[in-house]
Amino acid sequence: MYPREAVDDALLLFAGGVSRVEISRRLGIPAATVRHWIRGSRRSRPAETACFRCAGTAIPESYAYMLGMYLGDGHIVVGRRGVQSLSVFGDDMWPGVLDEVEAGMADLMRGAVCRVRRQGCTQVKSYSKHWTCLFPQHGPGMKHTRSIRLEEWQQQIVDARPELFLKGLFHSDGCRTTNRVRSRRPDGPVREYAYPRWFFYNTSDDIMRMAEAALDQLCIAHRRARPNVLSVARRDAVAALDRAIGPKT
After folding, report:
1. What residue ranges of the chain are covered by domains with CATH 3.10.28.10?
2. pLDDT for position 156
């Protein structure tokens, strides 16, 4: 006998368009059992788990982080029967980020979270009918081609936890690099030194402004190196951002 949660996950995946064979593979449940759940009448389909917005429950702490991830690398697709899939694409170089995204999705919405291997990256994916409740910035076209604005309740969350919001943004579209510089004095040898820098890349000016506002709130100096590149380079600013968001692993 499998727990009710396993049945619910299987039925929700099927409603989202996932085949029985793929459901069996993802959940580690025999295909015949999955087929029985889908075709049979012994267990009813699950009542959709409401999100914290609709249920009026406490906001999970992970939301600020997941909002940053969604704005950077997130994508929502609305499928049949109104079932929505939230996907975040992450580079395989950063397994720790993939783990945090998977945990964040599970924290926001009870249900199956799966990983799909792509060329050079991994898609972390979850199904629900409420993802657009949590991320109302969903809309047609790429994010940089349309206006992106936070709703008041989202802004309150970002203002309360700017470090988690920045962590999501920099985990999705940011990197920490070492800048190496060589200089020669007129009367001396070549001098070489290195210093760390953080960069954030995004083609949406609205999202860039959100990142700048969160950095300002934490008093972290920054500048636009280019319209789509945000640089944190001063030694004290890099140290402050390191403390705020931790390493990207």
Report:
1. 167-245
2. 96
Q: Which is higher by pLDDT, 114 or 43?
A: 114
Q: Is the pLDDT of residue 53 over 70?
A: yes
What CATH number should be reported for the domain whose range is 1-47? 1.10.10
Tokens of 133: 């409740």
Q: Where in the chain is the domain with CATH 1.10.10?
A: 1-47
| Furthest CA-CA distance within the chain | 87
Q: Please check the confidence at residue 163 and state whether its pLDDT lies above 90.
A: yes
Tell me the per-residue pLDDT of 122-158, one tens digit each, with 9 for 90 and over: 999 998 899 999 999 999 999 999 999 999 999 999 9
Domain 167-245 sits in CATH at 3.10.28.10
SS3 track for the chain: CCCHHHHHHHHHHHHCCCCHHHHHHHHCCCHHHHHHHHHCCCCCCCCCCCCHHHHCCCCCCCHHHHHHHHHHHEEEEECHHHCEEEEEEEECCCHHHHHHHHHHHHHHCCCCEEEEEECCEEEEEEEECCHHHHCCCCCCCCHHHCCCCCCHHHHHHHHHCHHHHHHHHHHHHEEEEEEEEEEECCCCCEEEEEEEEEEEECCCHHHHHHHHHHHHHCCCCCEEEECCEEEECCHHHHHHHHHHHCCCC
Residue 40 pLDDT exceeds 70:
no
Which pTM was predicted? 0.80
